[in-house]
Design brief:
Layout lengths: L5 E4 L4 E4 L2 E3 L1 E4 L5 E4 L3 E3 L2 E6 L2 E4 L3 E3 L2 E6 L3 E3 L3 E4 L3 E5 L3 E3 L5 E3 L3 E3 L7 E3 L3 E3 L4 E3 L3 E3 L3 E4 L8 E3 L3 E2 L5 E4 L6 E3 L3 E2 L3 E6 L2 E4 L2 E3 L1 E4 L5 E4 L3 E3 L2 E6 L2 E4 L3 E3 L2 E6 L3 E3 L3 E4 L3 E5 L3 E3 L5 E3 L3 E3 L1
Parallel strand pairs: 1-4, 2-5, 3-6, 4-7, 5-8, 6-9, 7-10, 8-11, 10-13, 11-14, 12-15, 13-16, 14-17, 15-18, 16-19, 17-20, 18-21, 19-22, 20-23, 21-24, 22-25, 23-26, 24-27, 25-28, 27-30, 28-31, 29-32, 30-33, 31-34, 32-35, 33-36, 34-37, 36-39, 37-40, 38-41, 39-42
Amino acid sequence: LSGGGDLTVTDGAVQAYGALTVNSIDIQDATTSVTLGGAVASTTTIGINSGGTIVQNGAITSATTVDLDAASTIGLNAAISGVSGTVAIDATGTTTIAAAGDISAGGAVTFGAAKAGTLTTSGDVTTTDDDVTFTNAVTLGGAVSIDTGGVAAGNILFSSTVGTAGNNLTLDAGPAGNVTLSGALSGGGDLTVTDGAVQAYGALTVNSIDIQDATTSVTLGGAVASTTTIGINSGGTIVQNGAITSATTVDLDAASTIGLNAAISGVSGTVAIDATGTTTIAAAGDISAGGAVTFG
């Protein structure tokens, strides 16, 4: 279907569409399913509300906003790009994003804001100074990168747990966007944070941790276990409130202060702690290492 105009579907049970080139798409209800089988280009909004499933097999190449809402599951098997505004994806069941299902948007991208379904994703998400929010539990199906640009804004928020299943997670909120992992991140893989302003992490169980830059602060709020290295470089402060229980090496470097309020143990190699400001170690902050321990 091509040529512009508004496509409005008031209701239908099983709905299947080929390529669509229109002004807008408004699928108000589907009893069973909606399947997008071809490429989709909209001049304005794309809104799909299904009482069952939504399956996107064709790429969405343009829209002002995209809103997918399913009472069952959602499957994104192709990319969403060329969206000047927001992308909202909500399912009562699991949303599954394939490696080909990368999302890029000029506005905020949200998962699970209105429904409680979990997310299994192998796709990257990119915005231009806009937030990316994961409200419910997330499982990685492959290596995933989240990049908000973050020149002026653009937070990355995981409000629930993240299961990596051995896959790598890369986060970049730029110098102005905050990075928050409220729940535990576990399952291995490498956690890489390229940049972020205020960074706060719950429990972390990973292969390695590489926080390359933080404009303001890094706070470790939960226990941290790494199979290999832990490296944190902050342009501001570092606060360790959760114990580090394993690593090959630990390297903490802050342009302001460091506060160690929990132990560092199970480190087979070196521990290096460097701050431009004062480093404060609480009574609970005992350090044990198989290699040299250096301060300053």
